Amino acid sequence: MAKVLAGDFPPLPEKYSADFRDVVRQVLVVDANRRPGIADIFEIPYIKEGLKIFSETVKKNTRIAEPIKEALVAHVAE
């Protein structure tokens, strides 16, 4: 954690996608004023696609109670 706070950390390995590494790079900005907020993060295409897949998966899951599904999907859609 101290290395992240100091901005002194190695890049993620190449085994992770460039899109994922880019999200991590954007989120781990040391200067809080330059760091994206949650609304900004949810607009990143990689995250948007992941949330879309999450939402579709939740809707199809028969083991999740309908009120819980609705709440999860609503929160993702916000």
**What is the number of helical segments per DSSP (H or I, 4+ residues)?**
5
Rg for CA atoms: 16 Å
> Largest sheet, described in full?
none
- On the 0-100 scale, what is the average pLDDT? 90
Note poorly predicted spans.
none
**Shape label:** elongated
- Cα separation of the termini: 30 Å
Helix content: 55-70%
Q: What is the tally of beta strands?
A: 0
Q: Spell out the helices and strands N to C.
A: HHHHH
Strand content: under 5%
Structural class: mainly alpha
Molecular structure report:
With 78 residues, the chain is mainly α. It is built from 5 helices and no strands. The longest helix is centred in the last third of the chain and has 16 residues, at 45-60. The model has no long low-confidence stretch (mean pLDDT 90).
Attribute tags:
single chain; 78 residues; mainly alpha; 5 helices; 62% helix
Explain briefly what this protein structure is:
This protein has helices spanning 2-6, 18-27, 38-42, 45-60, 66-77. With 78 residues, it is an all-alpha fold. The longest helix is centred in the last third of the chain and has 16 residues, at 45-60.
SSE topology:
Layout: H1 2-6, H2 18-27, H3 38-42, H4 45-60, H5 66-77
Helix pairs in contact: 4-5
